[in-house]
């Protein structure tokens, strides 16, 4: 078996990076694995370096535009010295780097994992994204699609039909999640009687945290609650969300808690988890919340979230656009009539054996 290279754009906390660390550790049990990052210094770099596989960082410091293309020459120089290998690019954000780095290198096989929807209502950018995805499909030896919702895109449906793409849902180790949930409470709010609503993700427009803040503000007119968001973001992004919280009457009841190495200690003590995303592939955070029994609310726009929740059987689904609809769903999930996830997360086990088999199948 050729060397396996797992590629991520950076080590900042995200479902993509957490999945990458899990996949690298799993494959390292039987293969030579190197986890390569375009940029180092993120929250999860220390965890990566203790994972039992090699780690190679192309650039130190925070990514700067055009960061993907800037990382490509360094990756190309490194790939030339590796011999036969399979490079698995784990997230949409970083695919341009291995794509350009591997041009004309016949010893490199390529797996592009599509972890987010590409067809969004954003005009020219959306059309350019579709053109780019056609290039990736043509270049890929295999293309895992994270979540069944992506197959609705005709581009991916055709790739599935031709055997280039394969559906690969996200998963979670429920037993491990429940064990980690027993850690001490990471914040005093989680030990108080005032219910905490939790959101998780990078502070980016995709995650739609502004709508969550607005919904929490509407609901707080009727009852006491607190809103916590876990995730990283720029100083500007943090300031914008803080101001929005103040404008919506959440001053003193809103917390940007940053990054954590144990999301389950937060989730297990939250009264509800909300996923208001404008788009997703298959949300890891949603499955993490379900694995510890937290009542959930998810946007219908968030990839396969509605399917995971069986359209309301295991958690509430809202339209993804209405703050009042989200507020009403949160109110129900904070009540005695909450719709709980039960053992639904166990239907989505970790997919790492399937990934390893897929990677072995494209061995040069």
TrEMBL record:
**Domain named Glycosyltransferase subfamily 4-like N-terminal: residues:** 15-143
> What is an example of a Pfam family matching this protein?
Glyco_trans_1_4
Please, which domain of life does this record's source organism belong to?
Bacteria
Question: What Gene3D superfamilies does the database record attribute to this sequence?
Answer: Glycogen Phosphorylase B
For this UniProt record, the keywords arranged alphabetically read as follows: Glycosyltransferase, Transferase
Instruction: Answer whether the UniProt record assigns the keyword Signal to this protein.
Output: no
| Keyword check for Glycosyltransferase | yes
Q: Kindly list the GO molecular function terms attached to this UniProt entry.
A: glycosyltransferase activity
InterPro entries in UniProt = Glyco_trans_4-like_N (IPR028098)
Question: Which family is it part of?
Answer: Belongs to the glycosyltransferase group 1 family. Glycosyltransferase 4 subfamily.
Please give the PANTHER family that the UniProt record associates with this protein. Answer: COLANIC ACID BIOSYNTHESIS GLYCOSYLTRANSFERASE WCAL-RELATED (PTHR12526:SF640), GLYCOSYLTRANSFERASE (PTHR12526)
Q: What is this protein called?
A: Glycosyltransferase
State the organism of origin.
Answer: Sphingobium fluviale
């Amino acid at each position: 078996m050729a060397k396996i290279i797992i590629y991520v754009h950076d080590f900042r906390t995200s479902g993509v990076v957490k999945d990458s660390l899990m996949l690298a550790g799993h494959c390292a049990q039987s293969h030579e694995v190197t986890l390569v990052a375009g940029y180092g210094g993120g929250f999860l770099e220390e965890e990566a370096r203790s994972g039992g596989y090699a780690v190679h960082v192309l650039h130190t410091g925070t990514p700067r535009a055009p960061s993907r293309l800037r990382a490509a020459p360094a990756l190309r120089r490194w790939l030339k010295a590796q011999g036969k290998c399979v490079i698995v690019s784990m997230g949409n954000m970083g695919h341009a780097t291995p794509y350009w780095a591997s041009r004309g290198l016949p010893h490199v096989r390529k797996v592009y994992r599509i972890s987010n929807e590409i067809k969004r209502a954003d005009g020219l950018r959306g059309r350019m994204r579709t053109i780019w995805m056609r290039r990736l499909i043509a270049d890929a030896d295999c293309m895992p699609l994270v979540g069944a919702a992506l197959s609705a895109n005709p581009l991916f449906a055709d790739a599935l039909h031709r055997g280039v793409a394969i559906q690969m849902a996200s998963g979670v180790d429920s037993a491990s999640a429940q064990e980690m949930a027993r850690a001490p409470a990471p914040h005093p709010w989680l030990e108080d009687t005032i219910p905490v609503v939790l959101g998780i993700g990078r502070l980016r427009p995709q995650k739609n945290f502004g709508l969550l803040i607005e919904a929490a503000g509407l609901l707080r007119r009727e009852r006491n609650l607190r809103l916590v968001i876990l995730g990283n973001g720029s100083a500007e992004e943090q300031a914008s969300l803080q101001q929005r919280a103040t404008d919506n009457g959440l001053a003193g009841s809103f917390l940007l808690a940053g990054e954590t190495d144990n999301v389950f200690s937060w989730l297990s003590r939250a009264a509800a988890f909300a996923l208001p995303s404008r788009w997703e592939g298959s949300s890891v955070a949603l499955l993490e919340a379900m694995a510890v029994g937290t009542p959930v609310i998810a946007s219908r726009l968030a990839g396969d979230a509605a399917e995971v929740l069986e359209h309301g059987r295991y958690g509430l689904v809202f339209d993804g656009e209405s703050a009042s609809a989200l507020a009403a769903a949160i109110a129900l999930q904070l009540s005695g009539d909450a719709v709980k996830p039960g053992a639904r997360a166990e239907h989505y086990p970790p997919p790492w054996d399937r990934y390893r088999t897929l990677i072995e199948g494209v061995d040069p």
